[in-house]
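We emphasize that the prediction below concerns an isolated chain of 201 residues; any contacts that depend on oligomerization or on bound cofactors are therefore not represented. The input was used exactly as deposited, without trimming of termini.
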Amino acid sequence: MIITTLAVASVALCVARLLLFAALHAVPSPYNAVEHAVSDYAVGPTRRLSAAMTTVTAASWLTLAGAAYGRLDGWPERTQIVVLLVILAAIFVALPFAPTDVEGQPVTPIGRLHYVLAIAWFAISYSLTGDLSQWMNDAVGGPLAATGRVLHWVALGSLIALIVALIAPKLRRRYFGTAERVFLVAISTFFLIAAIALAVA
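Result of the prediction step, given as a token string:
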């Protein structure tokens, strides 16, 4: 019962994250989806909405970790999955204390720490899509597993595009923001699907 409750809570939190993500781009702000990173929204007039999204996301990782611990009993990668989900929760607890340097502003030590945390959560969240896709394929199957596999590849493609745009100055301003948002939506939707799978497995 508690496993299902945690999974359902994670579903609700994942939906809330996606809604807050959409709201972040709907409210008036000096940022735009093409030229600015999502983390820029944590600075300035959208900081409270961004902080709410960060808090909800941290809670979603924790509830997902709890559900995975119970539901993946006997699965070889269970410990790794749970530990990585807890690490993701810790990263999101830390993010508000390490705001980014807004595009065009000088780089600061706190800004560098933010980049390290962002790289870590992008890498960890993507790595988890592989193990959880395999679990969904073996334990759940059907549309949930198929959707998880598609989102895994969408996340990979957008992550590669994001990295290319990040290291190529001529591409960064035109493509980084879009690639990042595709990655974030794919990742957020993937973990929503994973939470649903944990609830119904």
